[in-house]
Amino acid sequence: MNRVLPLIVVALAILAFATLLLVAGPAAQIRSIDPPEGLAPYTAAELRGRNEYISLGCVYCHSQQPRSPEQAPDVLRGWGRPSTAADYVYDEPHLLGTMRTGPDLLNAGARLPSRAWQLTHLYQPRAIVPQSIMPAFPFLFEAKEQAAQGDVVVKVPARHRPEGKVIVARQEALDLVDYLLSLDRTYPAERTDLRDNGFMAQEEDS
Amino acid sequence: MNFTIGTLLAFSFAASLIAIAALIWAISTHQFRITESDARTVFGDEEGGKLDDPTSPHSDSHPSAVDPALSPEWRRLLIVMFVTATAWLVFGSIFGLIASLKLHLPDWLTGSAALTFGRMRTMHLNSVIYGFLSLGGVGAALWLVPTLFKTHLHKPRLAMLGAVIWNLAVFAGVIVIGAGWNDGLEWLEIPWQIDIFLAIGGACFAIPLLYTAAARRVNHIYVTGWYYLGGLVWFPVLFLLANLPGVHSGAQQATTNWWFAHNVLGLWLTPLGLGAAYYFIPKIIGKPIYSYRLSLLGFWALALFYSQVGMHHLIGGPVPTWVVSLSVVQSVMMVVPVVAVAINQHTLSLGNLWAWRESLPLRFVALGAILYTLASLQGSLEAVRAFNTVTHFTHYTVAHAHLGAYGFVALVLFGGIYYMLPRVTGRAWPMPWAISLHFWLVVAGFAVYFISLTIGGWLQGLAMLDATRDWLASMEVTLPYLAGRSLGGALMTLGHLVFAANLAVLFFGRTRRFEDDSDDVATPATATSTGA
Ligand code: HEM
Ligand code: HEM
Known about the structure:
The complex is a heterodimer of chains A (206) and B (532).
Chain A: H1 4-30, H2 44-55, H3 108-111, H4 115-123, E1 141-144, E2 153-154, E3 166-169, H5 171-182, H6 198-205
Antiparallel strand pairs in A: 1-3, 2-3
Chain B: H1 2-28, H2 72-104, H3 117-148, H4 156-179, H5 192-214, H6 223-243, H7 250-285, H8 292-306, H9 321-333, H10 335-350, H11 353-358, H12 360-382, H13 385-391, H14 395-425, H15 432-465, H16 471-476, H17 479-508
The structure holds protoporphyrin IX containing FE (2 copies).
Domain Cytochrome oxidase subunit I profile (chain B): 258-507
Transmembrane segments (chain B): 6-27, 77-99, 128-146, 158-180, 192-214, 226-247, 259-281, 293-315, 321-343, 364-381, 401-421, 433-459, 479-508
Keywords (chain B): Electron transport, Membrane, Respiratory chain, Transmembrane, Transmembrane helix, Transport
């Protein structure tokens, strides 16, 4: 180990090999697939809401990747069937997440389709789930003396809002809820080969 | 389909085995021409065999007041690197502490979007990883590479430009994340428009080091140099490929994301930490590492296996089975380089316990090296499918993350900075007792942090897998442990403030310079007890 150049060349070759396997390999398999029939591209409002989701860091508490029944009871919890690569063709950036400080949200729209519930929950999660540790997002709303015409008034129990005020959703909150309601992958799974079926295999072996 | 999966797996596995076999052959037949005496490269002509520690009253090695090779530009550069790294440490810890408190006090500071958990946590991660650890680690490289190569740093002005650009880019990144603009990928949150400047800054660090390596005055490249050279060529490639806008999307982007994120840990932070540990442990103790040949195996096996482990972050996820299995296998194979490093570093440090008592910098570095071994063995276990099923989405992962990034890399850097700054500035640490206080605060704080989250995360994982319990049970069970983490994190943050204060007094206070009294060069008069 007395030469710089061979060291650098071998080091880069090893990284190139890994990149081939971990980046190029999956890309060749995944990038060519067709979108599932049941999945629609995001609308402009949903995309704005998705940007709110990214900007507020919801991904650090919520995953979007239900696991298979062989591995975990995600289906029983109502989080949806195991997802496949086909469910994410319109996702850029991906928001798979690695934490479940909160529940999985890949099918949040199908599970909790009420706009009013979502708005109240974003304004103050503890108005609905008293023990919740999800942050409140009051800055996505406005506290007004009186709602104007066209305002979306959010139902909030009196103890959770400034006295004598009504809570009105800002555009950001409405967009974010649009996005949450769009989270619905309840159509039949496509390309089930494009997910980690390693747990299924174990089940079959035994 | 199954055919391609099988062949690909078999191919990469065979390639890895062949490579390992080739390495063993190369080592045993002296192809790389490394000898055990090369391990003494860390010592100068008259050095070795004695404790070398500018913070210890019993050090036999007299730090020359100012190293004659150290040009003013080079010295200014190192000071800027370490001072800004420390500033990022302080800011990053405060962000981390706020994020931690918010997890059990969810209605605290909810008035502004910039203070919400998702942003505080992200500002924390980017401050400590790209601010503290990267600047501190590169700072150490900017001192160690020329020192080991017995030359001066070439092109120090370019490196200084790099320090300025890198700092401004991280600063801009953290500010815009707070303002709500980020790329949406974990570990790649800083918008790519700002990443361009990080890449430029990184190049400004790499070029002077490559020039220095080319102009070296020693024949042999010591193991520290391998890790640094590796890290310096790996990181730019990773960073560029992962940040290309508009190239990646969907589940495929997730594989790129975690290929990058784990390589930031394995091929960037780990080489920075290990490179430094491979220098400081033998240097301070005054004896070479246990088996120099073994370190070669440790380095190449790390490069080979670590670069392929990224998909263990997507176990059970929507990416092809074969790529996940590949990463799981390579994660377990990582035991090979980890044990190689462990044998080398711990036999030396644990065989010289007197030096732990004598030298606080060594205590930081050697403990950090031990925590590297523990973090890695834990990581290999966490990558096993059955284990990962419990821990994957829980705070257990966060505990492991801190064992690696904090217990290992940060502790090694603390020790390194305590050792280096007296030599760089020619001044003794003004408050030696503060070094000891720093050590005990962060060790105690981190123990509380790690144990809390490990237990809490495990219970969380079990509750989440139990279909008979409501999901909320998995959240509620973590609450006391999240509070415990805040307590531990507060102690760590306090330790960091003590460290920063010591640094501030070193520069702005009335500190003693080594040259002021040549009789007792290594110690300021006030330093009666440095050990605790
Ligand atoms: C043999 C070595 C190692 C292996 C096999 C390993 C494996 C793992 C695994 C399986 C995870 C959990 C992924 C998940 O379930 O979401 C993980 C997370 C993590 N590890 Fe390691 N680890 C190793 C060493 C290290 C070291 C040395 C460091 C620090 C420099 C480190 C830092 C991290 C971090 C920061 C995370 C969290 C990533 C995130 O979710 O943001 N690991 N590691
Ligand atoms: C230099 C010191 C530190 C380093 C290098 C560091 C590193 C990290 C890393 C790599 C993560 C990402 C973990 C993951 O995604 O799994 C993280 C998250 C975090 N850290 Fe630190 N950390 C440090 C100090 C602290 C301190 C002092 C605290 C105070 C309590 C803290 C609190 C947190 C919190 C709350 C998170 C978010 C975890 C979550 O998403 O649930 N960290 N840190």
